[in-house]
UniProtKB/TrEMBL annotation:
The lineage of its organism: Bacteria, Bacillati, Actinomycetota, Actinomycetes, Kitasatosporales. It comes from the Bacteria. Gene3D superfamilies: Dipeptide-binding Protein, Domain 3 (3.10.105.10), Periplasmic binding protein-like II (3.40.190.10). One of its GO terms (biological process) is peptide transport. GO terms for molecular function: peptide transmembrane transporter activity. SUPFAM superfamilies: Periplasmic binding protein-like II. It comes from Streptomyces viridochromogenes Tue57. InterPro entries: Peptide/Ni-bd, SBP_5, SBP_5_dom. One of its GO terms (cellular component) is ATP-binding cassette (ABC) transporter complex. Keywords: Lipoprotein, Signal. Residues 1-21 form the signal peptide. Residues 79-418 form the Solute-binding protein family domain. This is Putative Solute-binding lipoprotein.
Length: 496
């Protein structure tokens, strides 16, 4: 069956002819040395009007629009961005020294502007995932300093501040209605100049970027939820970069045009612990026992994934050696025809197929499964409100902060801002709190794994696979930024 899929993909791929005509600005010339515009196909249309406080923040960093005080280096450590340096003054206070930079509206990046941006982030509803369980205040200190004080000791604050959701925008970005507009108010090498709803966006080069002038004169973005369409657009030279190429379409691209990157992304089955069928831990255990993860890795992902072993996968290199057995698992009970609703989204094209295989596995175990698939932006609010019994989610475990504990706090604690499993367990909260309060790197990793064991013991989450993401890169493109945290794609050196 899999041998037929590349041919079917070519026959059935939706046409995107004409979709990538330049939407803003004009090329200085046609050659790469003259700053050609880049044409990019992204999988996820804006879910929150490109607010930096939710999932859209990663889209903005991938396009080189927004930045924070820090960023992540190749090893996942905090590195300078808008902050040139920092030091810890005591267990709750840090002083960050700013570099000289300007916002895209021409105003200077001052300590007051940074403090204002961070204050708005702390007041956002719901709270950004990077601030789950964390309180902080930011105040200007002299001409170049920003002093940040946390409610509790936060040894990984520089990592936390690398979160895309804690981007620094100018005062003009923040409306009186609580909305945030990153267009023309950010600091990155590309300025968002036009957004066409959930279909397209135009970005122009910001020539006064502190990190140097980008080689591309701008970016024309189409949001294309259909994975087959993205692959076909790259194959027919309608786009230069296409994210999240479906495994089933990889063979339709030249080998040189597909880049597989090991990521810290884990696809999991999340079970609603607050209400409905899976409030019963015994039925959660039955669902977990029904799942054959190796069938998903080999079948659906065709080798571009590893069978799920935990919340953290092989790309988190230290995790395997520190993993312990789940704590406190319930004994499974027979479902006896219990009806459940299983939901997922189609922006990541393997997920509907994963859900279909899970449906078969769960039904074989005795569940009666209704499957619901939508585009992510039309599904997120219902998922966060706990309106499904089960949800298949692909989640980069280090995308929010680079800190392994942050995803545990945001996704699995009582006050977590991205708690789709609706988990509220005192033992889990205590274990996560211990990890959050541990400063030493090795000890923090140990504590994170102890918390993982507690979380897995609840069967609120069943890790399915750890992914390698396929990005389509045109033959003329140089300098695409592919990283395991999936925060970058286009930078100053990306060109064609």
């Amino acid at each position: 069956m899999h041998r037929l899929r590349p041919l079917l993909a070519l026959l059935l791929a939706p046409a995107l002819v004409g979709c990538f005509a330049s939407g803003g600005g004009s090329d200085a010339a046609t050659g790469a040395e003259d700053g050609s515009r880049l044409r990019v196909a992204l999988a996820f249309p804006p879910a929150e009007n490109l607010s930096p406080y939710g999932a859209d923040s990663t889209t903005l960093t991938r396009l080189g629009v927004i930045e924070g005080l820090t960023t992540l280096d190749a090893n996942g450590a905090a590195a300078p961005a808008l902050a040139a340096s920092w030091r810890r003054e005591n267990d709750r206070t840090w002083l960050f020294t700013l570099r000289e930079a300007t916002f895209q509206d021409g105003s200077a990046v001052t300590p007051a502007a940074v403090a204002n941006a961070l204050t708005h982030a702390t007041q956002a509803k719901p709270a950004p995932a990077a601030l789950s369980g964390v309180t902080l205040t930011a105040k200007a200190e002299g001409a170049t300093g920003v002093r940040i004080t946390t409610g509790q000791p936060d040894p990984v604050l520089p990592l936390r501040l690398s979160s895309p959701a804690l981007a620094v925008l100018s005062a003009k970005a923040y409306g009186s209605n609580g909305k945030v507009d990153p267009a023309g108010t950010a600091t990155g090498p590309f300025e968002l100049t036009k957004v066409m709803g959930a279909t397209a966006a135009t970005l122009d080069r910001y020539d006064d970027y502190w990190g140097g002038r980008a080689q591309a004169s701008g970016i024309d973005v189409k949001f294309v939820a259909d994975g087959t369409a993205r692959a076909n657009a790259l194959r027919t030279d309608q786009v230069d970069l296409a994210e999240a190429i479906p495994v089933a379409q990889a063979a339709t691209l030249d080998k040189a045009s597909r880049e597989a990157t090991a990521t810290t992304r884990t696809t999991s089955l999340l079970l609603n612990t607050e209400k409905g069928v899976f409030k019963d831990a015994a039925l959660r255990a039955a669902a977990r026992q029904a799942v054959d993860t190796s069938a998903l890795a080999k079948g659906v992902y065709e080798g571009y994934a590893d069978a799920g072993t935990g919340i953290y996968g092989p790309a988190v290199t230290w995790a395997a050696g520190k993993r312990t057995e789940p704590v406190g698992r319930a004994k499974a009970e027979k479902p006896d025809g219990t009806r459940i609703t299983l939901a997922t989204y189609d922006n990541r094209p393997e997920l509907p197929e994963v859900a279909q295989v899970l449906k078969q596995q769960l039904e074989k175990a005795g569940f009666d499964v209704a499957l619901e698939v939508r585009e992510y932006s039309r599904l997120e609010s219902d998922a966060l409100d706990g309106r499904f019994d089960a949800f298949v989610l692909a989640r980069n475990t280090l995308v929010d902060t680079g800190d392994p504990v942050s995803v545990l706090a945001s996704d699995y604690t009582c006050d977590g801002g991205y708690n789709i499993a609706q988990l509220c367990d005192k033992d889990v909260d205590r274990a996560v709190a211990r990890a959050e309060n541990t400063a030493d790197t090795a000890e923090r990793q140990d504590a994170a794994m102890a918390a993982e064991a507690r979380i897995l013991g609840t069967d609120a989450v069943v890790p399915l696979v750890h992914q390698r993401i396929i990005t389509g890169v045109g033959s003329t493109v140089r300098g695409a930024l592919l990283d395991p945290y999936e925060r970058t794609l286009v930078g100053t050196g990306t060109r064609r």
